[in-house]
Flagellar P-ring protein
Amino acid sequence: MTNILERLGVNVTGEEFRPKNVAAVLVTASLPPFARAGSPMDVTVSAIGDATSLLGGTLIMTPLNAADGEIYAVAQGTIIAGGVTAEGQGARVTQGVPTAGVVPSGAIIEREVDFDFAGLTSLRLALRTPDFTTAARIEQAINATFGRSVALMLDAGTVQIDIVGTQARSPAHALGQIENVLVEPERRARVVVDQRSGTIVMGDDVRISRVAVSQGGLTLRIEEAPLISQPNPFSPGETVVVPRTNAGIEEEPGIGLAEIREGTSLSEVVAGLNALGVAPRDMIDILKSIKASGALHAEFIVR
């Protein structure tokens, strides 16, 4: 902070300068494709020191360096944080993340990435979700659009386009036609589970075989109630704390052995799982066990 003020012409050398409204932050951004000098882009600001909030803060001029050490953009502006903090003498409540925020269009691009896109004779389309069926459909749709063989599926995640064969004026014109081609992607059957919030999301292609499930659990309970033993007034002795612990184990009755019938549609699968009558977090453990038994025909993703 002292160096910043000195660059602005304010000399604070030798002074005890300890401001409490200054935060050390880390500024990051993603350079968009085909970015030109003078174009704006969003930046993310995160506190890396002991700052408790960035609400109402302003980012001073900050150069953004890439991995090659060159400065590609300069950022500054008002920080928009998405959290709030309320604090009293005996308690403190924080909602959201007040130590991180964004500056919309807060950076101006100063350097462009050299790339001769107009000189390409061929390019490759990279599928976000690799799949042989989807790549084959993309190849067929593009060839049908141009009326000739200009697309070739190389693997499950790559389709090569012959720009010269499209007879377009430029690669940009060719991509303008290709991006409007409608292709229905092949979806995988997936079950996505978020253990922190207990959220379960199932795709329409999820199937389940006939299986029997039994679910229960144990509850451990430990209570501490120490006793204080002290001598009578004006008598010799000292106060002694006698520990006293009550420990117990309770076994929940669970759902017993329940049958989940074979489901050929998502509604049948959901109805069978709901028939178990368990909480969402218990349902996550049941789905894990069903997947381990081989009865759940879907990709199981835990986050």
